[in-house]
Design brief:
The structure holds 2 protein chains of 2 kinds.
Chain A lengths: L6 H8 L12 E7 L4 E9 L5 E9 L2 H13 L5 H5 L3 H8 L8 H16 L11
Antiparallel strand pairs in A: 1-2, 2-3
Chain B lengths: L11 H5 L8 E3 L2 E2 L1 E2 L10 H13 L10 H20 L8 E4 L2 H16 L5 E5 L8 H10 L2 E5 L12 H4 L4 E7 L11 H10 L3 E5 L11 H4 L3 E5 L10 E5 L1 H6 L10 E4 L4 E3 L13 H17 L1 H20 L4 E4 L9 E6 L4 H10 L2 E2 L1 E3 L4 H7 L4 E5 L6 H17 L3
Helix pairs in contact in B: 2-10, 3-10, 4-5, 11-14, 12-14
Classes of the chains: A alpha+beta, B alpha/beta.
């Protein structure tokens, strides 16, 4: 159990990176995890090659969802929108460095869901796409 | 106060021996402390055995088979209905309709009574405190019919504010739908007062009894509600079975819910005549084993006594609230213990309820975290989520101590 609250996760939870929304972002998306009330709002700026140059986010929720958002905000800087669209659940779990059960994984994946939806520029993920 | 000073009218230790699950460990070496009873209760051996006995000795469909097994099954299933009618003091077994649970019971009323009686501009009055199951069906009905939804407000202390009830009941209010006991806070709402006022205003009253019928004596004739919905699995019975009580005059007038076998008297190609109560509302093969199991659960509860169960839970709740209030930085939600039944919900700044629940689980303590299907109430409380410990007849004061100890460990993990 202590595994779940490893130091890197508690560190990102208590000292979140890239917190604060950007003004005039190129991409913006927010979503909730209705099961536990986690909320994430991401803003991003991209350059002429659709590469993410700046990320800012706000949110509230459990340590897993917020640490995941903080780690993702660092991870996607420098990535193209195409690369972000190709990201998977595995990428998030590798960033967190833990495995999660069926319930808590939704907390971890909210950041991916929001960032991918933003990258697709849609109100949500296309169809039944499995993230 | 310490846990050894708690005076309970129940011998909870002896009761625990009837519940096989309570004998297990959460995981090897970690005792189970089950405090998630508002989500679902554990099942005593007589209920488990009744279900097994049905499937291994007289499994058959009810109401139609002309053979020994079917007859036995029908007697047991309909016998369960009689036990439940007596448990809530219904005036007739025809007023006890088996459903899948509270949610289906409320949807049944909204779909049948509601569609037949609610029109454009009519008012449906409910509260800010409701479980989503007593809110969303009314939203759907209001949208369909162009009706107005009104809400009795909840206070930040977690009680209903009835000061404006007369104004809320003014106008074409057709139905008042209120929960008896809050699933989030344990608040016992003054439903007798609400029922009487609503009836004076000419409205029909539905009570969500999911968190009250399992925990306290309920007399539907004394309280006078028109409908009462509750779930079997929260009162020692199996999942997938529940009850809708309805006053007979209303049930007789209502159109059926689902169409199919068992709910008809006579079928022609172009039209049908409905079966008599209660089967008019029970289309298809019912949950026979579930009904039989719920009948045994009700017998078990009656044997112990609902007054004693309520008193035991209130003792535990008072003790839990006292211990929780000693934890630095912890906020308890809802009214004081004497206005509550079996629930303690709380938050600690800087420790999200999901993380709290996970860390409590590491110590074997099972609680629920989240908005507990009551998002509007959490907006009033100003908390997106809470951690909820909920008690039942088999919980012990020592389990409250285990909860408190685990909370301190969780705080330490988060350096709080």
């Amino acid at each position: 159990m202590d595994d779940l609250y490893r130091d890197n996760i508690l560190d990102h939870f208590t000292n979140p990176r890239n917190r604060g929304l950007l003004e005039n972002p190129d991409i913006e998306f927010a979503d909730d995890n209705p099961l536990c009330g986690d909320h994430l709002h991401f803003t991003m700026k991209v350059d002429e090659n659709d590469r993410v140059v700046e990320v800012g986010w706000e949110g509230q929720g459990c340590a897993i969802s917020q640490a995941s958002a903080s780690m993702m905000s660092e991870h996607i800087i420098g990535k193209t929108l195409d690369e972000i669209r190709g990201m998977t659940k595995r990428d998030v779990l590798d960033l967190l460095g833990i495995e999660l059960g069926a319930v808590r994984i939704k907390c971890a994946l909210l950041s991916l869901k929001v960032i991918k939806a933003g990258a697709y520029g849609l109100d949500g993920l296309p169809g039944d796409e499995e993230i | 106060m310490c846990s050894s000073e708690i005076q309970s009218p129940l011998d909870a230790e002896a009761i625990r021996a009837d519940f096989p699950v309570l004998g297990r460990e959460a995981r090897p070496g970690v005792p189970l402390v089950y405090l998630d009873n508002a989500a679902t209760s554990q099942k005593p051996r007589p209920v488990i055995e009744a279900i097994e006995h049905f499937y291994s000795h007289y499994n058959a469909n009810v109401h139609r088979g002309i053979h020994a097994l079917s007859e036995e099954a029908t007697i047991a299933y309909e016998g369960a209905r009689d036990k439940i009618a007596a448990f809530i003091n219904a005036s007739s077994r025809k007023e006890v309709i088996f459903t899948r649970g509270t949610t289906e019971g409320i949807n049944l009323v909204a779909s049948t009574w509601g569609r037949a009686n609610i029109g454009p501009g009519d008012v449906i009055l409910t509260t800010q405190m409701e479980h989503h199951s007593n809110l969303v069906p009314w939203q759907l009905l209001a949208q369909e019919k162009g009706a107005e939804l009104r809400f009795i407000p909840a206070t930040q202390e977690g009680e209903l504010d009835l000061s404006g009830l007369d104004d809320l009941l003014d106008g074409p209010v057709k139905i008042v739908a209120v929960m008896h006991v809050s699933n989030v806070l344990g608040t016992i709402n003054p439903i007798k007062q609400i029922i009487d006022k609503a009836h004076q205003a000419g409205a029909v009253v539905l009570i969500d009894g999911a968190q009250s019928v399992p925990h306290m004596p309920i007399d539907v004739q004394e309280l006078g509600m028109d409908f009462l919905a509750f779930s079997g699995h929260k009162m020692l019975g199996p999942t997938g079975i529940g009850v809708l009580y309805g006053r007979r005059e209303l049930l007789e007038e209502m159109p059926p819910y689902m169409g199919g076998g068992d709910m008809i008297r006579r079928v022609e190609l172009s039209h049908s005549e409905w079966n008599e109560l209660p089967w008019k509302f029970e289309a298809g093969t019912p949950n026979i084993a579930g009904g039989i199991g719920l009948g045994v659960a009700v017998e078990y509860l009656s044997r112990i006594g609902m007054e004693k169960i309520l008193a035991h839970e209130q003792e535990l709740t008072a003790y839990a609230l006292e211990r929780l209030s000693e934890v630095p930085g912890l906020k308890v939600y809802g009214p004081p213990a004497e206005k509550k039944c079996g629930v303690a919900s709380f938050c600690i700044e800087g420790l999200h309820p999901h993380d709290m629940a996970q860390l409590l689980d590491a110590e074997g303590v099972a609680v629920r975290a989240g908005h507990h299907c009551a998002q509007p109430l959490h907006m009033v409380l100003g908390a997106p989520a809470t951690t909820r410990a909920s008690f039942y007849l088999y919980n012990l004061p020592g389990e409250v101590d285990a909860l408190i100890e685990a909370i301190y460990k969780a705080k330490a993990r988060f350096s709080l």
